[in-house]
Specification:
Blueprint: H1 2-7, H2 10-44, H3 49-55, H4 58-72, E1 76-81, E2 86-92, E3 101-103, H5 113-121, E4 130-136, E5 139-150, E6 153-163, H6 164-175, E7 178-182, E8 188-191, H7 198-202, H8 209-217, E9 223-229, E10 232-243, E11 246-256, H9 258-308, H10 323-362, H11 370-384, H12 389-401, H13 411-414, H14 422-429, H15 431-439, H16 446-454, H17 475-489, H18 501-510, H19 518-537, H20 548-558
Antiparallel strand pairs: 1-2, 1-6, 2-3, 4-5, 5-6, 7-8, 7-11, 9-10, 10-11
Length: 559
């Protein structure tokens, strides 16, 4: 690697740097022109400008456009009428004067090429905007011009300009090289070598005739030249300044030839750095070998901490044949066993929930299997809505437990064959709150408790127990409401026969957006046919029915 650094061509690196500087300088001018285009459009399309230009209303133009110039940070902007006369011309006060503007000095604007192009040509293959370099009393400026229309008629011209001195400084900051702009005769217009004026001539920056011919003949390629400027040797790269496929002038970028010697010094430092790094690597090797051993122990310790915090999927991922790897494998095997046992305990827990649900539903033959069906259907609807696994699990368990509060309601009220009194209705309606109180100590997910508490809530606030409305109603509660009502409508009740699934969905659809969430109803409508097929064949969805003697006893008590 050291040999490569030493033998590398410093000249090639210098040439690449110079070529890149030329590209960056040219791109800086192109970007400035694009900014001009946006600014011209902003001025021309400001509401009221077209009418003010057509009417020659200078006062209105000043009121409309001077604040916009300040916001856009323009150096110079002008508004010309259809006859080529200036209606408004403002220039920024000095390079360091911030955003203070003054009127520009008088000039014959109708002779400016960009203005003539807009007023005469209208548009070319590049559109209806034109660019050009214009000599103004304030200095040479790079202008972009575009039409101002009132309706479809061109009534004037909007110009946005940047003084060439300012443009050269901006290009120098980006290219990190000295930048000079020339006219087509090779005369320097402005340069970052000097402050402009006679100093530019003293610097002898003009392009020689043979070099000029080479630049013009290469059609976009750069031309190289070495020369002395202010008694210092430079390498220059020349090229045509192309904007909107139009050559508007010439440019050069220059880097001091001493850059090569500076690069040589950099290379010596690089070589020293390489040897220093090599020595450091030797020292680090021993340190890293020791770290490799302790890192494996660290991985095992981190895995143990994760398992201790409840993450039974954590593994040490320590491989090998040594003692640490054997210990890590034993740890991973133990963790896998714990995870399997935990999964079994969760299954037992869920089976207990299903048994409790079956007991609640079995009290009334009309609701046998209702809670199981609501839970399974809610999970299906949630999956259709692309909800996460934790929410799907909460929908399933919440559905199973949503009527658990009915355990606290006597059969005499719950199974009463006749209408309920107002007091009895309040007792039955309170089963949601009672269910949450029963489950409150079981450390269940909040979404499960939301399901149990809010499955009788409605979007318009007409539900119970809290009368929640609109966005205050949790998503699981919206799913619970739709699935609970659908199962009730499609199940025989003492006071009415079951509705056909299609009729039940139609009723829900009619109330979507008012009582029920429209997206949830749509998801149910997309899956209910498959759900009903499972409902007909899956014994789990039919619930547990009490023996006839027990059922008769419950009904007699209710009577």
């Amino acid at each position: 690697m050291v040999t490569t650094l030493v033998a590398g061509s410093l000249r090639e690196r210098f040439d690449n740097q110079l070529a890149e500087a030329g590209r960056v300088a040219a791109d800086a001018v192109v970007r400035k022109e694009r900014n001009h285009l946006e600014d011209v459009r902003a001025l021309a399309f400001t509401e009221g400008v077209g009418q003010a230009v057509a009417a020659g209303d200078t006062q209105s133009l000043t009121t409309l456009l001077e604040p916009m110039m300040t916001n856009l940070g323009l150096e110079r902007a002008e508004i010309i009428d259809r006859s080529g006369n200036r209606l408004l011309g403002l220039t920024r006060e000095g390079a360091e004067a911030g955003l203070t503007y003054r009127p520009v000095d008088a000039a014959d604007t109708n002779q400016w090429p960009p203005v003539q192009s807009v007023l005469e040509a209208g548009e070319d293959e590049q559109g209806d905007k034109f660019v050009g370099l214009v000599e103004t009393p304030e200095g040479l400026a790079f202008f972009t011009a575009g039409p101002i229309r009132s309706g479809t008629e061109i009534v004037g011209v909007a110009l946005v300009g940047t003084y060439l001195d300012s443009l050269a400084r901006q290009a120098r900051e980006e290219a990190l090289a000295e930048v000079t702009f020339y006219d087509f005769e090779g005369r320097p217009l402005t340069s970052t070598f000097v402050g402009g004026g006679s100093a530019t001539e003293e610097a002898n920056l003009g392009i020689g005739s043979s070099t000029l011919e080479s630049i013009l003949a290469k059609h976009g390629e750069t031309t190289r030249e070495s020369r002395s400027v202010w008694k210092r040797d430079y390498d220059l790269a020349y090229g045509p300044l192309i904007v909107r496929d139009q050559v508007v002038g010439l440019y050069s970028v220059a880097l001091p030839t001493q850059f090569i010697f500076q690069a040589g010094g950099v290379t010596r430092w690089q070589m020293s750095a390489v040897f220093a790094v090599a020595m450091l690597l030797v020292l680090l090797t021993g340190y890293l070998l020791a770290q490799a051993i302790t890192a494996r122990v660290g991985r095992l310790a981190r895995a143990a901490r994760k398992v201790a915090s409840g993450n039974l999927s954590a593994r040490s991922s320590v491989a090998g044949e040594d003692e640490i790897a054997v210990l890590a494998k034993a740890f991973d095997d133990m963790t896998a066993s714990l995870r399997s046992r935990t999964r079994q305990l969760r299954e037992h827990h869920f089976n207990t929930i299903k048994t409790l649900t079956a007991v609640v539903d079995a009290r009334d033959p009309c609701t046998a299997g209702h809670s199981v069906r609501v839970g399974e259907l809610a999970r299906r609807v949630g999956a259709r809505l692309a909800l996460g696994k934790s929410t799907l699990d909460a929908l399933l368990i919440g559905g199973y437990l949503h009527d658990v509060g009915k355990i606290g309601i006597r059969d005499a009220i719950l199974l009463k064959p006749t209408g309920l009194s107002d007091v009895e209705r309040l007792i039955v309606d309170g089963h949601s709150l009672l269910g949450v109180r029963i489950l409150g100590e079981l450390n269940l997910a909040q979404e499960v408790l939301d399901f149990v508490l809010c499955h009788h809530e409605r979007l318009d606030g007409s539900g119970y127990p809290q009368g929640l409305r609109g966005g205050k109603l949790p998503l699981v509660a919206r799913i619970a409401a739709v699935c609970d009502v659908y199962d009730a409508l499609t199940t025989d009740r003492p006071y009415r026969p079951a509705l056909a699934p299609k009729e039940a969905v139609a009723q829900l659809r009619a109330q979507a957006g008012a009582l029920f969430d429209r997206a949830v109803v749509t998801a149910l409508e997309e899956i209910y046919i498959g759900w009903e097929a499972q409902r007909r064949t899956d014994p789990l969805l039919k619930g547990i029915r009490l023996p006839p003697a027990m059922a008769d006893s419950s009904r007699q008590e209710a009577a």
